[in-house]
Amino acid sequence: MDEKDLQIFLTLADTGNLTRTAEKLYLAQPTLSKRLQNMESELGATLFLRSKQGVTLTPAGASFPYGKDPEDKNIRIAPTFPSLSDLEQAAKVLCLCVKLAAAEKLENA
Questions:
Q1: Which of 26, 73, 84, 87 has its CA 20 to 30 A from that of 12?
Q2: pLDDT 10s digit of each residue in the chain, 109 long?
């Protein structure tokens, strides 16, 4: 998965609609569907249930959907949602941290 996949996941969770997500991200719908299938394949879990009314997160897509996280270790995307701009900023910071950690690892190798 990459930053674009995370953006797809977050936007789809927000809109609940493949067509609107594709339009918002300037992707063709078949491209969006293929990337979603690849994400699900990579993770080994179905992230969204698809229906004629749209898509909804599965328990695998919504980390600890019943709020039971005894050690409070996971970032929860559901049942409450921060704004999309907050999530985009968090994704950018996370990607930057991973890049910095990788650069530090290469430098010390």
A1: 73
A2: 788 888 898 899 889 999 999 999 999 999 999 999 998 888 788 888 889 888 888 877 776 555 555 666 655 555 556 678 888 888 888 888 888 888 888 888 7
